[in-house]
C-alpha cells in the first residue's frame, strides 16, 4: 500500500510531503530516539493558530495560566510552587506587550520582566467544545493515525521562560507541533533514569518527575547527573518533534510568545504501564494521606483533583490488571488471524492526565481492551531510518559540549543537519536565581520542603525519602511483574 501511495501523483494544489502516512507511522512507532519531522504540516490550518488568532477564536473565554519567576534556582519549579490566574488570551497578550491595561487585570501582580506565564495542558476538545469544526485544522492522519485530530490534542501557550519541569510520561510516545515561537527541549534517554533522581512527589498520574533542575543542576546533591546523556534541540514553527516512549524532557519557551500542539500516541506497552501507575497511586495516596495535613507538604499536583481513597485505588488496580490480561488474550487471538490495517482505534489524548471521579470507573481503563487496535511496530521492520533534511536526528551532546548545549532546528531543517554533521552547538546561559511567589504577589508561595535544599547536618529521613525508594520506577516495574505473574496463576 505504501509503495502504491508513494507513486500516486499529487493532485493540483496538494501539498507534497516527504513521507507517506504509512511510512511516517512506521518511523513514529519504531524510532527509539528523538527526531524532528520537517515539511510534513505545511498545509495544516493549525499553523495559523498564533495567540492573536486563538484570542479571537476564544472570544473572551478565560483559561488558567501558571506563573513562575524567570530566575533560576537549584530546585525545580514544580507546579505546586507556582501561582495561578484565570485570564483571556487578550489579557495575556496585553501583559506580554507591557500595555498599561494590565495594571488592573489578572496579571497586575506579575511584572512581565520577572515572571513567565504558561497555559499548559489545555485540551482542545474542552476549550473549543463549541467549535468542533476547528478540530480538523490538526491532521495527525498525515503521520499514519487516521481520524486523530485536534479532538485528541493538547494546546500549550506560554511566554518567554515558561517551562515544564523535567519528567517522563508513563504512557505512549509524543508528537509535538510547534506553531508560534521557539521552544528548547532537553531530552534524556530512559537509561538515564537513575541519574535523574526520579520522584513521584509532587504526585501526578502518568508523570515521573526529576529532582534535578536540569537548567541549573546541583551537582553536589545530585552527582550522578554528570552521567546523563542530554539531547537538546530548539523546535521552530512548522516542525514536529517525536518524543519516544519514556524519554525524559525539560521544555522551555525561548521567544516572547510560544504556541505548541501535541498528541500522545498510545502504545501496547501502556497496558502494563497502567498497572504500574495504579500501584504507584495506591502507595503514594496511602502513605501521604496518613501524614499530618498541617505539615504543609503540597504533595498532590494541581492537575490531580484529589487524593482518591484506598478502596477506589484498589478498584483501579484490579481494573488495570484485568484490562492487561484482556489485551494479552486479544493479542494472541490477533496473531492467529491476518491483521487489519483498518482496525486502528485510539484513546482520547486526555487519558494522559485524565482525572477520575470518585466512585466511577476510570474512562481510560474502560477503553483499554477496545481502543488499542494496532500493534507496536518493531524496530527491525525499518531496514533504514530515512534521516536527512526531512527527518532530523536529535543527537546526544559531545562530552566537550556544555551540559546545556543546544541544537537548533531552523527553517526546513538544513541548518540542523549541518550543525549535527559539524558537531557545533550553541550555549544556553542560566545564571539567575529562581524564587517562587504566591498569589498575594509579595511572599513565597510555599516554603521549600525539608528535603528541597541540601543540609549536610540533617540525617533524619522523611516520608518522601521513603516514597522515592518504594515507588522508584525500577521497583514499581518489578512489583507490577510479580503482581501480574501472581494474578496469572
Task: Explain how this protein is built.
This protein is of the alpha+beta class and 489 residues long. The chain is 25% helix and 18% strand. The chain has helices at residues 2-7, 21-30, 51-58, 89-96, 124-127, 270-289, 310-335, 363-371, 414-422, 463-470, 473-488, and strands at residues 35-37, 63-69, 83-87, 115-123, 154-159, 163-169, 173-180, 183-188, 198-199, 207-210, 231-235, 240-243, 248-253, 257-265, 391-393, 407-408. The radius of gyration is 22 Å and the shape is globular. It starts with a helix and ends with a helix.
Brief summary of the model shown:
By secondary structure, the protein is α+β, with helices and mostly antiparallel strands. It contains eleven helices and 16 strands. It is globular, with a radius of gyration of 22 Å.
Keywords:
489 residues, alpha+beta, 9-stranded antiparallel beta sheet, 11 helices, globular
Secondary-structure blueprint of this entry?
Blueprint: H1 2-7, H2 21-30, E1 35-37, H3 51-58, E2 63-69, E3 83-87, H4 89-96, E4 115-123, H5 124-127, E5 154-159, E6 163-169, E7 173-180, E8 183-188, E9 198-199, E10 207-210, E11 231-235, E12 240-243, E13 248-253, E14 257-265, H6 270-289, H7 310-335, H8 363-371, E15 391-393, E16 407-408, H9 414-422, H10 463-470, H11 473-488
Parallel strand pairs: 11-16
Antiparallel strand pairs: 1-12, 1-15, 2-3, 2-4, 4-5, 5-14, 6-10, 6-13, 7-12, 7-14, 8-11, 8-13, 9-10
Helix pairs in contact: 6-7, 6-10, 6-11, 7-8
Amino acid at each position: 500500500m505504501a509503495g502504491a501511495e508513494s507513486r500516486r501523483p499529487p493532485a493540483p494544489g496538494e501539498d507534497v510531503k516527504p513521507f507517506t502516512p504509512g511510512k511516517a507511522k512506521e518511523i513514529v512507532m519504531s524510532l527509539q530516539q528523538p527526531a524532528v519531522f520537517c515539511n510534513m504540516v505545511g498545509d495544516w490550518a493549525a499553523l495559523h493558530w498564533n495567540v492573536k488568532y486563538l484570542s479571537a477564536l476564544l472570544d473572551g473565554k478565560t483559561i488558567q495560566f501558571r506563573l513562575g519567576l524567570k530566575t533560576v534556582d537549584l530546585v525545580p519549579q514544580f507546579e505546586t510552587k507556582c501561582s495561578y490566574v484565570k485570564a483571556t488570551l487578550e489579557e495575556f497578550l496585553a501583559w506580554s506587550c507591557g500595555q498599561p491595561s494590565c495594571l488592573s487585570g489578572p496579571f497586575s501582580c506579575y511584572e512581565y520582566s520577572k515572571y513567565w506565564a504558561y497555559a499548559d495542558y489545555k485540551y482542545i476538545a474542552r476549550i473549543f467544545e463549541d467549535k468542533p469544526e476547528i478540530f480538523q485544522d490538526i491532521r495527525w492522519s498525515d503521520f499514519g493515525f487516521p481520524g486523530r485530530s485536534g479532538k485528541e490534542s493538547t494546546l500549550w501557550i506560554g511566554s518567554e521562560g515558561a517551562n515544564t519541569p523535567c519528567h517522563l510520561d508513563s504512557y505512549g510516545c509524543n508528537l509535538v507541533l510547534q506553531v508560534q515561537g521557539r521552544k528548547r527541549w532537553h531530552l534524556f534517554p530512559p537509561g538515564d533514569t537513575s541519574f535523574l533522581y526520579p520522584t513521584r512527589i509532587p504526585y501526578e498520574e502518568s508523570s515521573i518527575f526529576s529532582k534535578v533542575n536540569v537548567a541549573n543542576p546541583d551537582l553536589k546533591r545530585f552527582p550522578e547527573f554528570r552521567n546523563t546523556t542530554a539531547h537538546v534541540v530548539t523546535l521552530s514553527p512548522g516542525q514536529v518533534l517525536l518524543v519516544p516512549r519514556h524519554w525524559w524532557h525539560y521544555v522551555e519557551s525561548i521567544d516572547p510568545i510560544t504556541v505548541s500542539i501535541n498528541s500522545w500516541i498510545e502504545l501496547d506497552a501502556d497496558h502494563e504501564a497502567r498497572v504500574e501507575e495504579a500501584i504507584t497511586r495506591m502507595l503514594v495516596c496511602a502513605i501521604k494521606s496518613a501524614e499530618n495535613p498541617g505539615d504543609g507538604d503540597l504533595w498532590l499536583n494541581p492537575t490531580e483533583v484529589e487524593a482518591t481513597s484506598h478502596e477506589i485505588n484498589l478498584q483501579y488496580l484490579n481494573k488495570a490488571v484485568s484490562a492487561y490480561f484482556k489485551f494479552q488474550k486479544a493479542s494472541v487471538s490477533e496473531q492467529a488471524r491476518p491483521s487489519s490495517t483498518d482496525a486502528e482505534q485510539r484513546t482520547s489524548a486526555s487519558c494522559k492526565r485524565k482525572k477520575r471521579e470518585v466512585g466511577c470507573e476510570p474512562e481510560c481503563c474502560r477503553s483499554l481492551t477496545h481502543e488499542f487496535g494496532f500493534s507496536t511496530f518493531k524496530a527491525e521492520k525499518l531496514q533504514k531510518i530515512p534521516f536527512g533534511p526531512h527527518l532530523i536526528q536529535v543527537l546526544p551532546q559531545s562530552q566537550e559540549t556544555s551540559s546545556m548545549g543546544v541544537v537548533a532546528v531552523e527553517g526546513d531543517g538544513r541548518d540542523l543537519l549541518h550543525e549535527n554533521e559539524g558537531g557545533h552547538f550553541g550555549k544556553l546561559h542560566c545564571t539567575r536565581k529562581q524564587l517562587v511567589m504566591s498569589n498575594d504577589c509579595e511572599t513565597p508561595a510555599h516554603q521549600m520542603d525539608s528535603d528541597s535544599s541540601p543540609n549536610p547536618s540533617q540525617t533524619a529521613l522523611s516520608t518522601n525519602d521513603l516514597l522515592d525508594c518504594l515507588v522508584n520506577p525500577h521497583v514499581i516495574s518489578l512489583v507490577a511483574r510479580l503482581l501480574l505473574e501472581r494474578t496469572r496463576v
